[in-house]
Amino acid sequence: MAELTDLRDEQLLRMMQAGDEDAFTTLYRRRQGSIYRFVLEMSGSAALAEDVTQEVFMALIRESRGYDPSRGSLIAYLLGMARHHALRFLKRDQTYVPIPQAEEDWRDWGDAAPASGEDPHSAMTRRETIRSVREAILSLPEHYREAVVLCDLNEMSYEDTASVLGCSVGTVRSRLHRGRAFLFQKLMGGVKVEPTHEAIDGSRCLA
Amino acid sequence: MKCEDFENIIHELVSRRVADTTMQLEALEHAGHCLWCARRLDEENKLTERLQAFATGLQGQRAPARVEVELLQAFRERNQQERAPLLGPAWSRFWHGLGWGLALAVIVATAWIVLVQWPRHPRSPSTTASRIATRQPKASSNAPRASVTPGASEAGSTLKGDAKTQVAHIQAVKQSVPDESASEATTDFISLGTCDDSQCMEEATLVRVALPAEALLAFGLGMDNEYAPDALVQADVALGSNGVPFAIRFVN
Prior knowledge:
A: 207 residues, mainly alpha, B: 252 residues, alpha+beta, 11 helices, 57% helix
């Protein structure tokens, strides 16, 4: 197992295709967190995040040869599948988006227990920050939300984000800029910053 | 650097994605003497800090362990399915061959039933005739079945309607003709004129009936004085496949 962790995703995938269970386990443990968090941040539902994570890796087991390395990294491919499943669920059941239901799923999100040595005032401030940020993110339109979640929360490159969303890097930048402007308005209560980039064509990245 | 250029790279600047060091220095220098851009940079930094704090709080979030267990189970099953054809070709061939063998046996049995057994069942005129012949009493076996009394035939043809009426009004209940009654003496069969071809004879059935003694007169046969007015005489009536009698003979 120690050597497997040093291998790249694509190498693990090839071993997995040959029936190597350890390679699959390594790949799953390496990438499941990103997928789970992406869906959780997009939907606010831990149950949906769990379902989608399972669905994505089941699809990888069934059709692992559907991945084309020339079209992007494996994590971008997996997140693209996760996005597809998440959007399908979100469109089918819009009740995932409202905050009241999401509140229970988000309850344990890092704000339950204070960090060691953290004073109560700081812990309360941190919890309040997390609560306000998650509400602001969930209130974003989906195409802005996914750009913010991937680039800002998961620190993906613009290129990988563009691969996940199936659009150009310029579109990613534009959506990220506008999404952040919305977030700033909600979180800081400041004057809305008008984006200077081109108008967004939502249909391009929602395919 | 202009404010518009600064705005275009401000996100990369706060997320430290600007690869070009020169451009980064120019942007920071611009923010140093432009109050508007300095304020924008400060706002973006605060927003980034909040988002990073939020993201840090989520770092420990992972799918439950049961998902991994279920996926591993699915992975193993998938592997077994893919390997199955390679693991047991001999067994596969055995079951495959057994299936084909059973199918072949069923086909052969069906063919044997159709080709060998089937022809024994259909009735042919010859077999029907022989069946009638075997059911005829011995006394009449000397006379050819087809030989119908000429005179009686004429009488039958002229009195066909009366004879049919009489048959229709048979008083006695139909009964099976005894297989062997050596003591019986019978007339030849008298045609009733209701059967113009051999078709009706193919399915003929012979039944023993009792008729009024006057029926003898209707078929041109003499009637002894010993018969009482309401006396009955026995006769064998040949019924066609349509149930209509087409020939009759009198017994004793």
